[in-house]
Every structure is written in C-alpha cells, then in structure tokens.
Amino acid sequence: MSLTKAGQICILLVLALAALPAVAAEMTADAINSAQPSKKILSNEKPTPAGVRLQVLLDRAHFSPGEIDGKFGENARKALRAYAEAQQLPSSDALTEDVWKALQADDRAAMTPYTITEQDVAGTFLRKLPSKMEDMRGIPKLGFTSPREALAEKFHMSEQLLAALNPGRHFDRAGDTIVVVDTSGGAGGAPARADRVEIDKSRQTVRLFDKSNALIGFYPATVGSEEKPSPSGTLKVTEISRNPFYRYNPAYHFKGVRSRKPFIIKPGPNNPVGTVWISLSAEGYGIHGTPAPDRISKAESHGCVRLTNWDAERVAASVAKGTPIAFMGGPG
User: Fold this and answer.
1) Per-residue model confidence (pLDDT) at position 218
2) Can you give the residue range of the structural domain that contains 146?
3) How many CB atoms are closer than 10 A to CB 186?
4) Among 135, 159, 186, which residue terminates a domain?
5) CA–CA distances in Å: residue 133 to residues 84, 143, 213, 306, 317
6) Domain count of the chain?
7) Which residue, 114, 142, 221, 315, could crosslink 180 as a Cys pair with Cβ 3.0–4.6 Å?
8) Does residue 256 lie in a domain region?
C-alpha cells in the first residue's frame, strides 16, 4: 500500500516530534554524572552533558573554565591545557585518556539536588541592571536581578544551563528542589596559599603558584584593553576588600562614562567590580569580580584583571598582602 504525499509528510512530522523529548532529556543530572567526554561529543557550539561534567571537574580542581555552561569553548580549553601542565602531562586542546583519568580522581557526582531556601529568594531583586555606571548611583545595593541569576552564580553555572536542567521552574519558591552543580566539599574551597601570581595579558589568564613553583590554580580573565592597558612588571597585593564600594575617578576617562565628578556605587554582586577587590601596588589597578561572568576573556576591562565573582573570591582566599603579582605577555 502506498502513502499519499500528505501521509508521508504527517509520518515525518510525527517522527520529528517524537525525537524532540529525547534531545531535551539528554541534559539531565544522570546524563551528566555518567558522561564520558570524547572529541565527538565535546562541542563549542552547544552544551553537552560531557561538556558540563568536564567543566565541573576542572572547576573543582581550581582550574576554572569560568562560567559552567556545558560548551567546550576557549575558557574550558585554557583550563584543560593548564590542568594537563600541572599534572605534568602533555598539554593540548584534546582531552586525553591520562588527563581524564586524573580528573576523575574526584569521583563525586557532578550534579546534585538542592532545595531552594528562604534566603535564596528573600530581599529585593533589581528589575534591570543599569547599563551605564552613572545610572548605578543611588541604588542601595547592586544585587541580583532574579533568584535564577543568584542561584546560577552560587553554583558557578550559566543561567541557561540552570534553566535547561530544571525545565518549567521559576526558581522563586523556597522549598522547591532543583538540580545544580555540586560545588561543595573536597577541593571546592580555596586552593593552597599562593606564593606568587602570574597574569598573562595576551592569553588572558591568571595562574597561581606555590612555594615549590607548582601550578595550584588557574582562572580565565579579562585583562586590560587598548583604551587602558594593564600594567607591566611585578606589583604586590596591598589590600583585599570584600563587598567593595566602587569609586569612579573622572581622571580615568573611561569610555562611555561622561561624569566629570567622582561618584560611588554601592556594593553587591552586580557592582562593576563584583564581590571582591584585590588592590595592587599601582594606583587604580586591581583583581576583581564582575557582574557579567559570561563575558570573561570575551570583553575588555578598564585596565584591571576581571574574573568571575567566585574565581575572584578563590584568588582572594589564596593570596595575602605582599603576594607578588607578575604581569606578562602582550599589551592586553
């Protein structure tokens, strides 16, 4: 029996629709926890369970991929190369069997259930983050714009990945259980005390070394710009400020800022310097967090060294007043 053209189209449509749940169901906690990365399933274009698991294991080892989004992008590749170097294994963009074996020494599940708390959803969320610095003046706290943004940052995730893992959730109800990256325990705290820090302006990276010269931490960064390049040579940490105020000096002449008078922006995770400021021994320069973790290594800074908030906090926990910070490489 032959089918009409309309019948054939209907069958093809049904088959296509039937395939959609399988694609959507792929990004689950079980799929991520059991994923085994390979060249074929690591993608720079779209998130994959293998990509998520690889990023989680790198993040736990203090070789940060930046925001965990499941894509095998440049920041994840940077972290993979640095981790291989630290393990004294051949360093490349390819995930080798030896590197994967070393990462899997942390055999905890990558994803875990989490019950949203009253604290997660309490307080006032900004409707929208102002795009101009001048418009941030007078806001009592530069907080998150939504519980979804707050939870994503808490677990080092992109908002898109958090939403994909928890379809239909609005993240605004205490008591709801969601799936998140397991960032607790093990190596998830601060790395060992850093004896020195290297900032590569051309590669846009921050590397921490201990007294034995072992590489103990790696973080992708945004380092300077043509408008205001980062300094050269070796500086030192002079102060560490958590939940800092941001003080704008009109002498800096930042692009897009027209104020001729100094002004202050109140603290908060969406403050221009995020949740921590590590002041360096050159006026106006520091290592700090950011309100836009997805833009790390992909946008310019005003001469400083910008990290995700959680990476800036880890670096701050590893350095101390007097720690040398060496700037290397190109202009940044």
Assistant:
1) 97
2) 111-186
3) 12
4) 186
5) 40, 15, 40, 17, 28
6) 3
7) 114
8) yes
**179 and 287 together in one domain:** no
Q: Is residue 45 domain-shared with residue 124, that is, in the same domain?
A: no
Give CA–CA dist 278/316, Å, rounded.
7
Token pair of 108, please?
Answer: 């905890």
CB 217 within 8 A of CB 208: yes
φ/ψ of 130, rounded to 5, equals: -55, 145
At 234, list the tokens: 């070796």
Tell me what percent of the residues of the chain surpass a pLDDT of 70.
Answer: 86
Tokens of 4: 């009409």
Residue bearing tokens 């293998």: 50
Strand runs labelled E in 124-195: 177-181
CA 284 vs. chain centroid, Å, equals 24
Predicted confidence (pLDDT) per residue in 36-68, tens digit: 987 777 889 999 999 999 999 999 999 999 999
Tokens of 288: 């700090």
* 224 domain-assigned: yes
Are 255 and 322 contained in the same domain? yes
Cα of first residue to Cα of last residue in the chain, in angstroms, is 69
Tell me the whole-structure pTM to 2 decimals.
0.88
Q: pLDDT tens digits for 103-154? A: 999 999 999 999 999 999 998 899 889 888 888 988 999 999 999 999 999 9
Tell me, yes or no, whether 76 lies in a domain: yes
| Dihedral angle over CA of 192, 197, 202, 203, nearest 10 | -10
| Contact predicate 78/218, CB 8 Å | yes
Residues 47 and 175 occupy one common structural domain: no
Helices in 61-172 by DSSP H: which ranges?
Answer: 74-86, 97-103, 118-121, 147-154, 159-165
- Return the DSSP state at 288: E
| Dmax (CA) of the chain | 83
Specify the amino acid at residue 60.
R
* Cα 215 to Cα 197: distance, rounded to the nearest angstrom: 10
Mean pLDDT score across all residues of the chain:
87
Residue 280 near residue 259, CB atoms below 8 Å: no
